[in-house]
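Figure 2 data, in text form.
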Amino acid sequence: MSRIFCFINYLLSFFREVVLEVSSSPIHENIEVTFVNGRKVMNSGEANYSYGTLKDAFYRLFGMIGIKEKKVDNILILGYGGGSVARILRNEYYPNARITGFEIDDEVLRLGKKYFDTSEIRNCRVIHHDAYMFDRFCNNQKFDLIIFDVYIGLNVPERFEQDDFLITLKDFLSERGTLIYNRLVYDEKSQKTYEGLKEKLEKIYPGIQLITLENIKQNMMFVYQ
């Protein structure tokens, strides 16, 4: 019966959004898992957290920077969410790389396991903790790919845009490593804080690229490689 119900929801999702579960946590006031146009997505308020426009943005970015050509053995994802970026990297690019993810919200992790089968992503260690403290858990490892995607709603918490954190990220990059820092710009205030972040990143990461992906909002992807 559950498979039939799932198939009906799948069909309905091409005509209207189908809500599968609504939840909340001390971190996110609203978390929804829905079917939209035939695929399940996780959202918090206006922000897509997994498998929607966010997944599309990373797919496009990975193609644009030629990530398939890079040798990657060790991956760090800060802001794991429902695991959509980890699944792209595992299924499309790096079947044998080690993945370490950080996600602070246990409700996001629960929904990820329930609806997106995150426990089935091989060789992936997800740490339920504040990504700001990732260095305490990584034992001075070096990562060939670091992806930063930490959000509360539409906003990056301010402490993740300070010099000390940005320098720490660089310390954990391998010699051939790539950093991808995802930043949304959606109004005048976010534009102003983005400009401040851009100045800091250009100072700490000489030669960093900025790639703009146009969606409903702008994903400003900083890429250092």
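Caption note: The first strand starts at residue 18 and ends at 23.
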